[in-house]
Design brief:
The complex is a heterotrimer. By secondary structure, chain A is an alpha/beta fold. Chain A has 12 helices and 12 strands. In chain A, helix 4 crosses helix 5 and helix 4 runs parallel beside helix 6. Chain B contains 12 helices and 12 strands. The radius of gyration of chain B is 22 Å and the shape is globular. In chain B, helix 3 runs parallel beside helix 6 and helix 4 crosses helix 6. About 6% of the residues of chain B have low confidence. Among the domains of chain B are: 73 residues, no CATH class; 80 residues, no CATH class. Chain C is mostly helical. Chain C has a domain of 202 residues: MetI-like (MetI-like fold). Chain C has 12 helices and no strands. The longest helix of chain C is centred in the middle third of the chain and has 37 residues. The N terminus and C terminus of chain C are likely disordered. Classes of the chains: A alpha/beta, B alpha/beta, C mainly alpha. At the B-C interface, loops of B face loops of C. Chain A: It is a peripheral membrane protein. Chain A: It is found in: Cell inner membrane. Chain A: InterPro entries: AAA+_ATPase, ABC_transp_ATP-bind, ABC_transporter-like_ATP-bd, ABC_transporter-like_CS, Oligopep_ABC_C, P-loop_NTPase. Chain A: Belongs to the ABC transporter superfamily. Chain A: It comes from Azospirillum endophyticum.
Amino acid sequence: MPSDASPATVPVLSVCGLSVDYATARGVVHALDDVSFELASGETLGIVGESGCGKSTLARAVVRLVDPSAGTIRLGEEDITHASRRQLRAARRDIQMVLQDPAASLDPRWTVGELLAEPLAIHRIGSRAERRGRVADLLRKVGLPPEAAGRRPHEFSGGQRQRIGIARALALEPKIVVLDEPVSALDVSVQAQILNLLTDLQRTLGVSFLFIGHDLSVVEYISDRVAVMYLGRIVELGDRDSLWRRPAHPYTRALLDAAPRIDGPAVPTGPGLSGDTPSPYDLPTGCRFHTRCPIATELCRHEAPATRELSPGHLVACHFPDTGAEPSSSARFGSGI
Amino acid sequence: MSDPIPADPVLAVDGLSIAFQTRRGLLPAVRDLSFSVGRGEMLAIVGESGCGKSLTALALLGLVPTPGRVTGGAVRLEGRNLLALDEAALRHVRGARISMIFQEPMTALNPVLTVGEQIMEAILEHEPVSRKAARERTLALLERVRIPDPARRFAEYPHRMSGGMRQRVMIAMALAGAPAVLVADEPTTALDVTIQAQILSLIDELRREQGTAVVFITHDLGVVSRYVDRVLVMYAGRKVEERDTRDLFADPFHPYTQGLIAAQPRGLIAAQPRGLAARSQADARLPGVARERLTEIPGTVPALAAMPPGCAFAPRCPLADDLCARTVPPPRPAGSGLVACHHAGESHAI
Amino acid sequence: MALPDTASLPPTRTDFRDRTVGRLLRRPSALVGLILLAGILAMAGFADIAFPGDPLDMAGTPLLRPGDAAEFPLGTDMMGRDLASGIFHGARVSLLIGGVAALVSLVIGIGIGALSGYYGGRVDRALMRVTELFQTIPPFLFTLALVAILQPSIATITTAIGITSWSGLARLVRAEVLRLRNSELAQASIILGASDARIIFLHILPNTLAPVIVSASILVATAILTESSLSFLGLGDPNVVSWGGMVGAGRETIRTDPHVAAIPGVAIVIAVLALNLLGDGLNDVLNGKGERR
């Protein structure tokens, strides 16, 4: 993995070879397998994939809600892979998370003011009065009126609650915010409000986002770079433009084709994927995508492809990536598969 | 009414109104809704949560749950008003002439019966055939919905199947009586995008081959743009616009429709001819990816109990004036369809 | 300029507690329970004013029936003790034992349940084995044995009831804590860097309060019944009057003068009924059977 960053440009987050295994009643699930990426200061990395691809596990592992079984997680230069709860406390000021369902993550008995002051109280930041001022400041930042501080979460609409969730994650002025499907439960017009808010916050605060999503147009909109995951692995990672214009991995291509969009072609352009995602308890040998891949060969069935760099910053894990040189949209919509 | 009526509508809804019975009286949730669907046509009803689209879907089968009830209008299926039928007669029609699939098939499938048995039941319910014949038909149906290895799947229980497979079973069951109309309420919302594509192409193929009319309830405009012939946009219980799909996306008339489309995060391809302003703004950001601001629709949908007297969208609408605040705009012909707005056409940019 | 969906907020609703009490009072059964309980509390509170002397003193002719003498509205027992005085002073003992015993089992039950549910794993397995041990021994026999060994007094009776009746509560709290521990509520706190104590005491336990309050009212009722049974069997505190003891004392004259046993018996029934009605009402209101919001 490229880790030649000079000290001046140390990524705010670097994940290397991260794996997470869960022991369940039905056996061990390899939820995450050898995942590596870096997140630069002020950028948004989107993680996209279907259910069971490990994107939520990745989000939870990065904030150390689940314990990794291999690999390392670095915040700046600090290795937090095996940090204890106590050691993590300081690191938590740098990395925060917005969960998908604010209705479930905000204590219904607390007022919004108390909820927003809590992170400051936990880290003993400021006096009571200072915290009050900070709460008002946070509310303003996320576009809520100051009166909101006296209300309880259930009095707000879904979009407003997500604003509270975002404000709470920003209270400690973190360098990184992990966003786990933050707009999936929202209607499209409210979703637009939240996406605009996130963009504005990033511009003014310079915070980095790790954005987990399943809606391709949302991920495309918000991300600078995107990682596509399938069954616990990153199959392709690159900057948004090259990924969308020239998807190299057959799965990325199928995913982009399958998601209809109002500005896209009127008919599906590829044959589409057949079959279901294999069970995570019984992973395919070789390349995990070979059971559904339209171009799989004998090699794919036996040997897992190594990750290689197609062009600077564009990584793909496939034996037969589409390296078509033409950056036109015909590459994407042609019947290349 | 000058509905864009298909030549020979299989299903014609006329002035449908649904209300919730509350302690403070009736709260209208769907008002004066009219539309029709022709043979083999796919009509989408789109709108955000609470607009009344799911309630409408249920009303088409006489399934409005309490405390809701239909307070007016007619639902004519092949000329017969379903709202005038009693429960016994309705049961005859349901499954045979009109059937429905839901977002979460698990809630509609019986967990203690194999999927084959359930589809057989659905056949035997409506037709006096032998069990052997029903079994054969079931296997054919499973094959029809592209379930691999139907004989083995026949004996499987629903919880053992994936979400996509379950939705296929639901579709097979819905097709058991060869209905004229299939109502699909967010059938792919719970599914992954590659599975969603499979299910949608299946529905699309079935309606083309069997001439089943499809009423498709969804919030996903992307899906609408790819699979649907005609779109009906609902807002706060009313139809605000009904158009041929291509026209709707090319040139939406109603300010709400315009807002919905503009709020959709759009990709590179559409945003290709980008202004220099957007670029330079983005240059301040590190990796330098441009990002247009999405259009927001200000405010929120009014609560059922606090519906404004005039146009329900007026409080959020950039074109609203006194007229809008006072009177509900009636649907009027516009382009290939209808729009219910006093000012549609005066401005196209929201 | 587009205003986000935040320009307007709904009007503030009244406080959580106000609404709970208000909804409780709108339920006839819960209201009856509350009134009866208030009556019993008043009896306990005013016992010394209404009946100044020792209720165990011989005050008048034995075995007076209610209405025989204006001085003794509920009559007297075979020792000439004033039954009305006994009922008032007995209310004090019954409520005290019921309340404190319930408190003891709440502390043990919540403590064990919270530790077990929050930490899981080995802690959970060990604590749950202990809980099961307590569950398998019939609680009344267990209490009886403890009191017999420790010598009956208000303190030993209360402790014995407390330490034999927490197991159900512990399992209930464990289930709730386990659910909340894995919820986004706890995860959000962990990500903020909150300590375990903070998460348990500020976020998890307050959200398990509803079912705990409901079972607390039932625990009090059960403790009152257990104390009465002990006293009836002669294992009550001999130095104080209790309803169970009064029923026991009336046993010998039950054929000739049934009121001596019946009057304290009715008092027990009313107290237990009141607590159960209240518990049911709380269950409906707190656990969402009533209208939400």
